[in-house]
Amino acid sequence: MRPAFRLLANVKQGRYLEPFAPTGLTGLVTHPSPRPTLIYLYRRTLEKLKEFPESSVYRQSTEALTRHRLQIVESTKPPGFDEWLQRVKKAVAENPERFEAARLPDGTYAGIQQGDNKVTVADLEWDGEGMEPTTEGPARTPEELARWQQIMDEVAGKERKPSDFEPKELNWEAEPPLEAEQIAEIENKIGGGLIEEVIQVAEGELKLVEELAKDKPWEELAEKPPAGQWEYFERKA
User: Fold this and answer.
1) What's the pLDDT score for residue 229?
2) CA atoms within 13 A on the CB side of 128
3) What is the dihedral of CA 99, 78, 137, 190, to 10 degrees?
4) Do the bridges between strand 170-171 and strand 118-119 make them parallel or antiparallel, or are there none, so unpaired?
5) Which positions ≥6 away from 20 have C-beta within 8 Å?
6) 24 phi/psi in degrees, rounded to 5
7) What is the pLDDT of residues 124-167, one digit of tens each?
8) How much of the chain is helix, strand and coil, in % rounded to 5?
9) How is the chain split into domains, by residue range?
């Protein structure tokens, strides 16, 4: 039923979903790049889970679910993906030092999507946070979008200055978008609602993993509990 909300809210959609268009769910807009976002979140979660003991039931169950969903997303490739990947690999090979900031612990690169191909190190160092929720309503007109971009460029030009921590912009070509049918296929296979909802769940899971990794609940308690404190909760044979 939930994919139908998107269809009702975005009647004019064609082969591709319109980024930031209403999804039919209040406060949730169409994500502009769901595939690379989910791949980033899932890989980051799997990398963080390596800090947990292999005997951890939470690690085992979360790894299994995350790997399953990652496989679903990675196996769905947008049209022109292979050609895009070859161009990106060529660009990285020609100047690997400049793209080092985008390299993830597993050796892959952060697939951050932008409105154009101008990506700075600050853009690449994304912390996994989701988009700020926006109110539902009609999409901006091309003139309004152009004016908004002009304002943002003017502000960025006045306030942001080059420094040793933010080198020149990198030419990072955005991954081709998934077709609407491909997104629907991912949503059906995962069974977690709209892909934007799946992203929210992945963000929450990553935050939880990071908190648990920091707190290390598998370690011995600093203060031992009194004898017999947990006997009431033990499963009876």
Assistant:
1) 80
2) 21
3) -100
4) antiparallel
5) 29, 30, 32, 134, 139
6) 100, -10
7) 443 444 444 444 444 555 665 666 566 556 655 544 444 444 44
8) 50, 5, 45
9) 2-233
